[in-house]
Amino acid sequence: MRKNLQQRKAELERQKISIMGKEKALKETERRERTKKLIEMGGLISKAGIDTLDTNALYGALLSIKEKNKQGRDPRGVESKRRQCLCKGRKRRGRGAACCSV
Prior knowledge:
With 102 residues, this protein is an all-alpha fold. It folds into two domains: 52 residues; 37 residues, no CATH class. Helices cover 77% and strands 0% of the residues. The termini are far apart. The C terminus is likely disordered.
């Protein structure tokens, strides 16, 4: 009986170590994904040409966008502007005018 309990305890300890390893790997993956997203957002801010703004002004502008989105304002104007910007970027890179058919 004593040996059986010790074996069970050892097995549970191995499982615990395995779970801890998986948890660590999952946290690392989540950290990488978050970092990638933050880098992409920074790239968009730079691409929009607002990376030279004071951080407080930029934060205020982002909060304003968030508030407008919450209020359910018509996003079609924003979508249209986004398409125009993407098309300009693609034309500059030689991808042609077909990009505007989105």
